[in-house]
Amino acid sequence: xxxxxxxxxxxxxxxxxxxxxxxxxxxxxxxxxxxxxxxxxxxxxxxxxxxxxxxxxxxxxxxxxxxxxxxxxxxxxxxxxxxxxxxxx
Length: 89
Description:
coiled coil; single chain; rod-shaped; mainly alpha
């Protein structure tokens, strides 16, 4: 039976510590990247809000025009049906 070499044990321990430190660094780097992505997204919010505001403004204009057109058509139909009712009566 061979006795464990103290130098080998020390080197093994150094390797284990280095691997643990490397894993911790990888986790810290991943967290740093995640935070950077969040900050980048927050920085883009004003641009995205402006773009969505413009799109909603266009949608609102469309719906306002649609509502006015529907009202005009309904008034025209009501006027036409009132005229038909007078002729029949």
